[in-house]
Amino acid sequence: MTVTYSDESSSNASSWNWSFPGGMPASSTDQNPMVTYNTPGSYNVTLQVSNAVGSNTESQVNYISILDSPEASFTFNSAGTNYNFFNDSDGATSYTWDFGDGEVSNAENPNHVYANDGTYTVTLTASNNCGSNTTTQTVVVITLPTAAFSADTTFGCTPLIVTYTDQSTTNAESWSWSFPGGSPATSTDQNPVVTYMTAGVYNASLEVSNSGGSDIFTQLSYINISEAPTANFSTFVNGSIVSFVNNSNGATQYSWDFGDGNSSIVQNPQHTYDDDGTYYIELSVSNSCGISTYMDSVEVIAAPLVGFSSDIAEGCLPLVITFTDESSDNVTAWNWSFPGGDPAISTDQNPTITYSAAGIYNVSLEVTNAGGSATLTQNSMISVSDIPSAGFTFDQSANTVGFTNTSSGANSYEWYFGDGTTNTSDETSLQYIYAEVGVYNVILIAINDCGSDTTEQEISITTTGLYDLGNFEEIKLFPNPNDGQFTLSIKGPSSNQITLSVVNVLGQVLTSEALDFNSGTLEKAYDLSDWADGTYLLRIQSGTSTVYRKVVINP
Description:
Layout: E1 2-4, E2 15-19, E3 23-24, E4 27-28, E5 34-37, E6 41-51, E7 54-66, E8 74-79, E9 82-87, E10 94-98, E11 104-105, E12 111-113, E13 118-128, E14 131-141, E15 149-151, E16 155-157, E17 160-166, E18 174-178, E19 182-183, E20 186-187, E21 193-196, E22 200-210, E23 213-226, E24 233-238, E25 241-246, E26 253-257, E27 263-264, E28 270-272, E29 277-287, E30 290-300, E31 308-310, E32 314-316, E33 319-325, E34 333-337, E35 341-342, E36 345-346, E37 352-355, E38 359-369, E39 372-385, E40 392-397, E41 400-405, E42 412-416, E43 422-423, E44 429-433, E45 438-448, E46 451-461, E47 474-478, E48 485-491, E49 495-503, E50 509-517, E51 521-527, E52 534-542, E53 545-553
Parallel strand pairs: 16-23, 32-39
Antiparallel strand pairs: 1-5, 2-4, 2-6, 3-5, 6-7, 8-9, 9-12, 10-11, 10-13, 13-14, 15-17, 17-21, 18-20, 18-22, 19-21, 22-23, 24-25, 25-28, 26-27, 26-29, 29-30, 31-33, 33-37, 34-36, 34-38, 35-37, 38-39, 40-41, 41-44, 42-43, 42-45, 45-46, 47-48, 48-51, 49-50, 49-52, 52-53
């Protein structure tokens, strides 16, 4: 840079002494010198002026600034397609970047993302007022590959041959495959062919790489390999019912032949056989890869059906009963139970049992065979009787006796009251009215199918009350005995009514009527000629007074 200096000192200066550090010339006595600077930098300038009386000096510090052309320089780093540029230029005041892909920037330290892989020339032009300088560098952009693949088939039967097709991004440079269960199990081919010999579900994986890095793509449960099924089954027999457990492998369909003309397509069927015997069962299983058949036999023995009867079910001691087995023909063992019998248990098919104690007894039979067992209990099946035990008690009021039957084991009874009257009542309590004073021997006979038992007690009747008048003045009954036709005549204090009843010696009312007695007299004719011969009692009631009169019908 050439600089011309102009003296601006006072006009009385007569000499000039310049100093130009870094300039050419470095000093001068010219009034307006010209100086050239060849080296960049900042320089001082000093002028001293003089005349006859003296001098004066002025200095300008860093008065002259000398610039040079800039020096362009840069560095960079990257992450994939993302590049960071760092400007190392010297002396520049402005910058122009050309990234080589048609994109530019004026930033000092720009960031740039490349859209595509490739080799790019990056140019930096650094400029200032003195000029510009350019530098270039080559950038190689390599993005990470993305792994992907497909297969021509993903399921089938063994042996299954699968061709894999690489579908990764085009910048992949190497391939590393993994095929668990396949042959080969690994490969570096771009599009390998793999054979699967064993049924199963398998993953497949591909790792692709380039100088920028790698990527892995895995497809889980991608390959499904099937094989022809294997048929097998087991059986569980419960009598005539057979349960089939399917132990086949790899089958999707099932076909059973039970050997008796019946079939099923159920995976684990249950079948009931109508008859005992040995049956041959065939199971055919299939899937998309083939068919397999398995055969086995099963012996069916139905559980028995139980039943029995006896020649008699009731009787008297000692009671001997023969029991007859009526179970199904396939019974192999019998277990009888006879509570109260002798013997109490038996394994005979048709046992004979003796019962020596009266009672009601159950009988049980369990029958068994290889197919199971069955039990039948007949409750209260056997009724064993003994001769009865006769007994009675009584309570007495005048000529009226109440009897209580305490017999046991009887189903019928005969009473003899000692006055010629008999009764076959099976009631536990009964009443008897004696018509005459006397001593009577009362007999009770208790009877059942096995025999009878007799008991007797003596009863003394000291009064009958048959001649009491009670509240009445006169009571006449005539004729008596009679043929059922007689007349009753009563006199006494007047009353609204009296009640006349005919009862038998057991106290049972046979006829009864209420009559007006306001007049104090009553005469009534009876006609009982169609009644049975015997002794009856006429009961006469008025208020709290009750009297009896004996009536004997004997035509």
